[in-house]
Amino acid sequence: DTEVTQTPKHLVMGMTNKKSLKCEQHMGHRAMYWYKQKAKKPPELMFVYSYEKLSINESVPSRFSPECPNSSLLNLHLHALQPEDSALYLCASSQRGFSTDTQYFGPGTRLTVL
Amino acid sequence: KNEVEQSPQNLTAQEGEFITINCSYSVGISALHWLQQHPGGGIVSLFMLSSGKKKHGRLIATINIQEKHSSLHITASHPRDSAVYICAVGAGTASKLTFGTGTRLQVTL
Prior knowledge:
The structure holds two protein chains of two kinds. By secondary structure, chain A is mostly beta strands. Chain A contains no helices and eleven strands. In chain A, a hairpin with a 6-residue loop joins strand 4 and strand 5. The model of chain A has no long low-confidence stretch (mean pLDDT 95). By secondary structure, chain B is mostly beta strands. The chains are: A mainly beta, B mainly beta.
C-alpha cells in the first residue's frame, strides 16, 4: 500500500470557523509533511514531522496548527483563516525524513476561505 | 539558499515527439527529485537522483553534478504525459526540498 489519503477533498469555511484537515499513511513512514500550493505555483513547505516530533515549521502563521497523534496520522487544525489562505493543501510522507527519500503525496484538500 | 530554475516554463509537443525538460540549481545537493503533477492536484514522484542516470519506461532522468544540471526526457510522448513537471533539490540530510517553478507540458494528437 503506497497510498497517502487526505480528507476532506474539498472544504469551504468562513473566517471564523474552526476545521481540521486529516492525512493518513500506512507505509510505516516516519516523516510526514504539510505543503500549501497556490494555483500555478510549486508546493510550499509548511511543516515537517519526523518520528512524531515537529522538526520544521516554516514560519507558518499560528492560525495553522499541526498535530501528529501517531506515526500514521497527521492533522492540520485551521482557525480564523483569511481568504488568502485558500489553496490546495497537500500532505506527503517519506521513510525517514531525509532529502534522498522519495516523498509520497496525497491527493490534497482544496480549501476555500470565504 | 539554493536557486532552482527550470526550462522551458511551457512546452507544447505533438504525440510521438521526444521531449526534454531542464533543471539547474545553484548550490551542491545530495538529491534531485523529478515530480509530476496532473491537473486536479496529485503529485507523483518520478525519480530521485544523486548521480548518473535513471530510466523508467519512456522516462529518462540524468544529472550532471559538476554542472549542477539535470534533464528529464520523455520518449514517444503521449497526451497522457500532459502535466506539470517539477524539479526539487535537497541538501544534506535535511528533509526540506527546494522546488523549481515547474514546466507545463501539453502533448497534442
